[in-house]
Design brief:
Radius of gyration of chain A: 19 Å
Number of strands of chain A: 16
Low-confidence stretches of chain A: 306-317
Distance between the termini of chain A: 29 Å
Structural class of chain A: alpha+beta
Shape of chain A: globular
Helix content of chain A: 25-40%
Oligomer: homohexamer
Largest sheet of chain A: 9 strands, mixed
Number of helices of chain A: 10
Largest interface: A-B, 68 and 68 residues
Strand content of chain A: 15-25%
Order of helices and strands of chain A: EEEHEEHHEEHHEHEEEEHEHEEEHH
């Protein structure tokens, strides 16, 4: 089997040669930003929005890449093109751009580091991790680890500092290995997000999702809001407590890879009737229609294939 | 000039060959822990304490290294030995151990990643960055960025997620390029630490330093407490506000590299008389006596040398 | 088998006749306070301290009982005496005093209700619930439910409003049925207490327990502090985070029934070496010596007896 | 005079026989939920909404009653029917359903207790307590006791743990015996609710009521919102500070019994002009029209009758 | 040059005779409220709104002036009339009403002091301080000093206690003498206001301004909202973080004197493109149209005049 | 009757001539600091400490007076000397130094204002306000107004911004005109201070007083700590909740004027036995001994005199 081709600072290299210095601040301090979209039929979904958000994240941490958004989109499409021969027709994949601050020279402070690192790469979607959950629904647990508040680091930027999310994931997995994800509260006690997805709750027939202050402004989240609009389902932001979730009729999470996954259990309690609900289904269906791919069916087909090529190196469901 | 030798997962390589995969979670997510000590006369200071703290940091993020503390100490001494020929007699250096979670295979969660990365390396101390401050004193600014609270990530572990500190540093440097470091408050409004040092305040002849909840439990901080004990200067932990600092007789920061640096200005206000104070001096003197090196004098001598070899790739004053 | 005798507002009745009106505010609103001690060799332990704390709890919620502390102690001893024939020689039991505000007449506010209800009763200790944990150690989980802060209801009074604790217990049991108790954080993110016990952590050879603000000032907690004093183990109050617990050498909980139980797992992480530790053992041993009863051995003997008479109607480990 | 008939676990008994074991967790720990509506012309108002909320409250504390909502409504109507002969034509009453967790058997945790207690009963409305306030307006005081935050116990469920409210009431009554109710702030400093009512403020001609996070989602509150809609008075939820109330044109409280009562004084300050305002009056009038009962006039007539039968055992204005 | 005429407790005196006792509580404790409007073509802008807000501020601190709003408006117009001869045709000015509690007699508490002080005076607008900023944009810095929360003193009243604002200004000016104003965060970490202006952010083409809880409800702020309405620019209140501002397309501040000033730098970062933006310009233009004065041009003309008469004794931009 | 002589910016004037411009920032914004001591036998108590604290307060708000502490002490003694002829032998008085920032010239920011105002004056002690409370004890109420947190303005400086205290006083007096003072909580819910005194609680025979973060570091408070030391009463700082106060054996407040006053009621609850306690008495007695004046007896004698000369213009008990 051939290797994937990775863009690395102007070069295209096989993935096993995609290496960086251990003195790159991306490695030393997680001093980086990134973004990830997925393809539908090998075409990236909302690529422009993702690259635009990447540039916001970079601006937030004061990295000036020296390339335009247009450049990064071109490179991204190039990476996809160069790897296309490796992918099955029915398969789709993640595509990620990642920028780290690069190497720090003696006497430099953060603002002086200018030799930034850009990598762009693709990864097959980890269908096997979640395909069964379209029917079963996912199980979430609320860990003690709270989401970092905006006055420390804004949760709205997509950054290479994920230990807050990772600690939450570890706690949830240690307590219940079968739980899909940790559902994090913010420091005020309101629901924020999982380690890699945004949450929506169906309450009295309306969709509600946590305020943008303490969550990543997911592009998948935006897509749900748009789809809800076209489906004429009222949808709003709000401060949500666990009580809202415990009393909800339905709930689902949204992220780049699986788009929409029903949540059927939180902290050992059934959500709604404990099975995927009709509004969740209609949002997923609308998304499938929008992209021309039956999202759940594709996942199921691919998950069944024994020899799935999977080079997934991100955390599960790692983009929004 | 020869390259430094770096330990990398069982091998000793020149620093330009010290590279890792961009798919290592250390690079992707800052999913790592590290520790740094410095040498005095080429012997590492409190190496055992630093390695012990490294193991605590690893335990906190659920990385089991597969080596003992004794092993890591041995490797560290080996790295020093192999690089000794490159160092001047009067020079000292940082020595760092860094462990990242390694590469994540498809379908793995954080706890499943077991192929961790260990690197050990040395760097010349950046005397030139701080030597003049023993006499002048450092200038600090309080940025708007608050230190991440312990319910999100414990500040007491030394981890590869430094964006909170970096954002603070960037804000301070943008506002006042001549400021040495940002002095961060915690989310309750009390003083925590700078981006890379612990603070001590002299108030009514007593030393006070912020409570351990929201700071790295610096080994340099411990050393100051020990030296204060031997000097019979009362020393305690407490919740400190900026008012305490504005009214203080003296203040200083402590970190692995410079040990003790006087702070003479905070937010544009003079601290005490605006010059390094006598208690600060006596602590630094005791530290010099303990190590057999006149710490400030060594820094000054080295800073003067034109052709200082400096491969510093950490943030300034990056260890405690 | 005979029934236990219960004191109820001046009368002694068999337990199946110990009933109150559904219009008693104790039933309607949990408007009550209580205290529970246990016996050693059929003699109540620190009865005076418990009754004194009961009177503090009553004062806090503005109930004036109309009886003196001496009266309540006399009634308590009387209840024990009247039930003694039902108890085995090696068995010990809980003894509880409970005062509810009584029935509210039309037009009355809380302060006008004066016909308070006093009940005093005994219950066999639930040895079977915890006897095996002296050797194994208990498993705790941190639920999302936080301990009610003192500006709402003081955690230091022992009151008939336990839903905060019960919600925490339910969450922990739903997520992990084998966990012994929920370990609650306070609203600042510091460790407070379990639903029915105080926590002690052994850190660098010293005992530390959460500050009194957000916990019940347990009499068992006081006893541990006294025993630590006599054992010359340094012991102090402090703000504790989960990091402290994860890094601790040992941890244990203390409550009236089992006195001291080792904690060997928190949130799926081993505490210390994951087995009961030596300082925990020495505190338990000192307590056994103080009371003349080998506490763990007694629990084990009783737990083994098949036909244990158990009329336990409190939550497990329901007193401190 | 005859006794009221109470439904108690499947039986109909006179109120003096409505007793439960002191070992019922409802009595021990306030481990229960309840709901109360009132009748207009002997017909319960929004019974379905109240029973639906009762089932939400039970779900929140993990009690499965074993009866359907329909069953509970039937029992409720039955209780009303059986007591009708005792009531005057012009009188109305509260009707309450209350479910406690029941008796805990040895070794059981909360989730194991399954023998729940259901009681349903009626009480004459305490007209005498509030009839004069339609004209005078009520006086409120802000106590130091803050409303329990949602991360501890959700204020949106109607539960048998009322000590937080009771402590607030006691403080207000001790300081000013003539005050009608305490007006509680939440832990962020915003207005939440009184011990037994929701607050509405009239500001620039608009109705505003506190956000649902820290209050009971009163059905009376919902009714006000509906009536405001039909009266074309703008009405919204918001975070309210005492400043809003001090500057308001009018304010009123709403609860099941009195429906709408003007608030004319808070913390010794007049609200608006210090007399009941026109918007308050119009909402009350609309409510009277909706129910076919002149609510204030009925209260006044009944309050005047000397020999009112009153078996009120709740706190004043105890339902919403 | 003649002196300005000041109204002081019923008399009209030259400004150098406008003195009060050092025992007036306005001097002792800042125990006062005030309001300031500006004129356009010598006619006060929204005088009624300002006087109405003054009476709200007085009500908040329990001062009853003994004059009607109409009286105060009359006096204000009188003061303007009496000073008109001193003003150039193209010049405009601030006009301020200030009420202090007056002198406290022995044994009096705050509520007993009834001899209040009223002063009304005008001041030339400090065009020179800000005229250049219409083109350049203002530079703001976030100080460590947080805005006093509403549970301590409501930021919505305009009061004579400005040390919170002054401390913020001092910190900003010490750190960067060229910064125009401090931008304060509230105690939750959200943006509140500057020391003397409200902030608006342009985000995705929409105007957003901080919620009213932690800011002065500026009349200039209201004017912007009205103008935005007429310009069909969507405008809303919200919780804003610094991230919102860093990512904004434009930002501006609004206050009585300069009406609208672009903000082009915050904490050393450029806002948007770092130059005044088109929405800012359109709001300012609409304001000019509303008042018949080209606001920026007037400021520029006046700032150029060498011999500007300036008796400004307030802080810069001291009203909204 | 003669007037008191007041020092005002270098001159000695009769009090009715002690006037300042209404444009002094002390009047406009409360932009000032002050300190007050009292005399015993016409000699000022701890004058040096008070003047030293004044200079700290000035430093905090960045006012450089241009006089030395020695100068200010000399002026103070001079003011006392010049007024001595007006005082009875048995009478004592307050003596206050007050510094305001002075008049702001056009274009100046806070730091540019350099013409500061200094006034020094004496006032007879308001014995009549508190003499009866030595025997009766004072009644306190907890208002909703919370003490400004240190991240907004440090409570440790004695500043001319008292509206936070005044709003608390007004609320308490409106609710209960007979209450002596409001007892304020800080924003975390812990006890801070009254509007003009520090609180001490006697708990288990030990004195405890709130931590210094949220209170004025009273010199009277320091004196109590010193006297407790000499009386061998254990005394410490701590976080105190109302529960501590409700359960206390005794409580008292301390301020410059009355030194020590017992507190016998808080929020309508008796403190301890509801009468002044023995430890309170012993501290007051020690203070009398220290100063050679029977403090309570002097107050009682003076309060009885009908024609007390009282020119008190501060708030009651206005210094510590």
């Amino acid at each position: 089997m051939s290797a994937f081709i990775v863009y690395l600072n102007g070069k295209y290299v096989p993935d096993y040669e995609a290496v960086i210095s251990v003195f790159d601040r991306g490695y030393l301090f997680g001093d980086s930003a990134y973004d990830t979209t997925r393809t539908f039929k090998h075409t990236p979904f909302k690529l422009e929005s993702h690259v635009s958000r990447l540039f916001n994240s970079l601006k937030y941490i004061s990295i000036e890449l020296g390339l335009s958004q247009e450049d990064v989109m071109q490179i991204t499409l190039d990476v996809i093109r160069r790897n296309r021969r490796l992918l099955n027709t029915d398969e789709d994949y993640w595509v990620t751009q990642r920028v780290s601050r690069g190497r720090q020279r003696p006497g430099q402070s953060s603002l002086d580091c200018r030799e930034h690192t850009l990598i762009v790469y693709i990864e097959p979607l980890p269908f096997i991790s979640y395909a069964h959950l379209y029917a079963q629904g996912a199980r979430l647990i609320t860990p003690s680890v709270r989401r970092t508040p905006p006055e420390c680091i804004s949760p709205r930027a997509k950054l290479g500092n994920k230990l807050n999310h990772i600690l939450a994931q570890i706690e949830a997995k240690r307590i219940d290995p079968g739980c899909f994800m940790p559902l994090m509260l913010d420091t005020r006690g309101f629901i924020s997000e999982t380690d890699a997805a945004n949450l929506f709750v169906v309450s009295h027939g309306r969709l509600v999702t946590p305020h943008r202050h303490t969550v990543l402004e997911g592009i998948s989240r935006d897509t749900v809001i748009e789809l809800a609009g076209s489906l004429e389902i009222p949808c709003s932001e709000g401060d949500l407590t666990l009580y809202d979730l415990y009393m909800a009729e339905e709930a689902f999470i949204t992220a780049t890879s699986y788009c929409v996954l029903p949540v059927t259990s939180v902290n050992g309690r059934l959500v709604g009737a404990g099975v995927p609900g009709p509004i969740t289904a209609s949002v997923l269906q609308a998304w499938s229609k929008l992209t021309g791919v039956d999202i759940a069916a594709q996942a199921t087909r691919n998950a069944k294939e024994a020899d799935t090529v999977s080079r997934n190196s991100g955390i599960r469901g790692g983009s929004r």
